[in-house]
Amino acid sequence: MIRIFNQYVSAKSILLMVMEGVLVVLSLLCAAKLRFWNAPAELASYMTFPEFAVQCGAVVVVCLACFYYNDLYDLRTGYGAMERVLRIEQSIGAASLLLGLLYFLIPSLLLGRGVFIIAMLLVAGVVLLSRNFLDRAWQITAPVQRVAILGTGELALELARELTRREDLSMKLEGFVGGVAGEREGEEIFGFRVLGAASEMEAIAKQYGIARIIVALEDRRGALPTRELVTLRVQGVRVDDASSALSALTGRVALRSVKPSWFVFSDGFHRSHWNDLLKRVLDLVGGILGLVVSLPIMLLVALAVRLESKGPVIYRQTRVGRMDKCFNVLKFRSMRIDAEKEGGAQWATQNDSRVTRIGGMLRKYRLDELPQFINVIRGDMSFVGPRPERPVFVEDLRKAIPYYDERHSVRPGLTGWAQVQYSYGASVEDAFKKLEYDLFYLKNLSITFDLAIIFKTVRIVFGGHGGR
């Protein structure tokens, strides 16, 4: 188990990605040798450096991306052997189509028909066999980290739920430890026993081989076994705070359990002038390129909107941006022009009757948001950041949700961590959940995290998920 962007990621999924990258390269090498098995001179001419290395690199990147988009590296997704075969076949098929398009655009990357076909067949076979082998080897050799939760309240229960959902992390919950002597000892909580009292932490850790203790006490005054935890920490047992552990398990800040001091003393929330400058430069370059590339699509969308219903093609709506500064977000109109004539400002809902037929398709594939490249160029928005809300909603949400205004410390984004992790928000509770993801983004803000979010956004957009 390792951390990437302060999230727990299964070491097995990283190992799979590296292993399969190597296997794709080996398949290409074997395919070339099989294709030219009786012509060594042609083989030597074919495998010239660096041309062949670049060609192999293109195949590796496309194949791994297709595996990723087919959830083959998400080990939390439970699927059987037959579905695994289908997912691998779908990934190889998609990779073949994408590589065909890439070869049409950049002919110098072309491998050759014979080598390509042999290589794809080999990749499908070796990936399936290697995954079956790794599954068995992992069950035998992978170390399991035994965990105990100090506490028996709601926070401890929430932590137990998240731990049991993340079976891919090889973390085994042994049970709970009561805050005071005799507290619920011997009881079962969420299917796990209360192993004893906090004063018995050392004996419990030794008896059950505990490697990690997560402190989930709602009130630590007089209940935190400081001396025992210090002794165990010195002996090599890891001690974590529940809020930090939940954040790493879920990719969000659990606002109902976090205390103000956690924001003050926890790692993260760094700001760098150079990072901000680089982010702005990338936004400017990406915004200009995005506007130019999408211009033909935007012209077709504008025509479709105009033909379907009367009213403006571009819809301007006031949103709250960085440091509470309001700006007009640009979108292709996807609703009737009288959408808010009666009820005023309101959340969009599933199957919203105000959405036009063309608007439904635009929203599903986010085509209505293409004009926001102009907002990015202007500096109103960034590619990645919290999604901007309307002032009337912000006024209500900042009263109902703690720390809501912290999301306005950065530019709002076309996409964001909350957008790729949570469905469309249409209530105060949804806004609360999305803020938890936004705060996690602010805590771990970086260019590489932005790129990972964009990569995940592409999958969501092409899959047509989450739009309303």
Which key phrases capture this entry?
3 domains, flat, alpha/beta, Rossmann fold, 6-stranded mixed sheet, 468 residues, two-stranded antiparallel ribbon
Commentary on this structure:
The chain is of the alpha/beta class and 468 residues long. The protein folds into 3 domains: 2-141, no CATH class; 145-265, NAD(P)-binding Rossmann-like Domain (Rossmann fold); 273-337 and 347-463, no CATH class. The protein is built from 17 helices and 12 strands. The strands form 4 sheets. It has a 6-stranded mixed beta sheet, sandwiched between helices. Strands 1-2 form a two-stranded antiparallel sheet. The radius of gyration is 26 Å and the shape is flat. The protein starts with a strand and ends in a 5-residue tail after the last helix. The mean pLDDT is 87.
Quick structural overview:
The protein is α/β, with parallel strands linked by helices and 468 residues long. Helices cover 53% and strands 12% of the residues.
Itemize the secondary structure elements and their pairings.
Layout: E1 2-4, E2 7-9, H1 11-35, H2 40-46, H3 51-69, H4 81-105, H5 113-141, E3 145-150, H6 154-165, E4 171-178, E5 188-189, E6 192-197, H7 201-208, E7 212-215, H8 226-234, E8 238-241, H9 242-250, H10 260-265, H11 273-308, E9 314-320, E10 326-332, H12 357-364, H13 372-378, E11 382-384, H14 391-400, E12 413-415, H15 417-421, H16 428-443, H17 447-463
Parallel strand pairs: 3-4, 3-7, 4-6, 7-8, 11-12
Antiparallel strand pairs: 1-2, 5-6, 9-10
Helix pairs in contact: 1-3, 1-5, 3-4, 4-5, 6-9, 11-12, 11-13
